[in-house]
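Honest question from a wet-lab person: if I give you the sequences of every part of a complex, can you actually get the arrangement of the whole thing, not just the pieces? Trying it with mine:
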Amino acid sequence: MNKAIILLSLILCGTLAAADIKLPPPVKEGGMTLRKSLAERRTRRAFSDKPLSKQMLSDLLWAANGISSKDGRRTAPTARNIQELELGVLLPEGAFLYDAQNNKLIRRSAEPNKGPVTIAIIWDTGKQPKKEYAAVDSGFIGQNIYLFATANGLNSVFKATFNRKSVTEKLKLEKHRQVIYVHTVGFPK
Ligand SMILES: Cc1cc2nc3c(=O)[nH]c(=O)nc-3n(C[C@H](O)[C@H](O)[C@H](O)COP(=O)(O)O)c2cc1C
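Yes, you can. This is the full assembly:
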């Protein structure tokens, strides 16, 4: 009997650990004015361990590269609307891909991440072979994140130098999907 309960608990824990995360619908207003956010935007690298709420995560990811019109266009532009970039989301509870259509996080692994949230900008080289386009498109996402973070009392840093191998492995990416930059976001320390 006891063994059965232990087995059931283990299965349940395994299922929970492997689960995707459904996000609440993003709130598309609020924060400080655009001009104040531009005036106060800064790279700030010190983060507390306090996790972001699911609502804030949803709002942040929508601001970064969410869907903003019925035809599927995004908050960040891409050359010829190719949309070669997607977002990986590294959380203490695992590594995920942001599914903007369904507003959820699709689990890729249970590998934990240090710090509240690191957003990996993933470049699909099959969709857009030119790195200069993928790089400039990434810059728009980075600026969206910087402005959202500033407007909502969060610190953030955009990075070109990071452990690519580790992030790629956590997200279990195929060869044609490359992590081009990361952007870490969290409450100030
Ligand atoms: C393309 C790019 C790459 C960057 N890479 C890193 C990085 O690898 N590590 C880091 O700590 N900051 C990185 N930064 C942040 C810059 O150091 C920062 O934006 C710069 O010092 C200006 O500060 P500000 O953002 O507060 O205006 C990067 C910024 C950009 C735009």
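Two things worth pointing out. The helical segments are 2-17, 34-40, 54-65, 131-151, 164-171. The CA atoms of residues 154 and 187 lie 5 Å apart.
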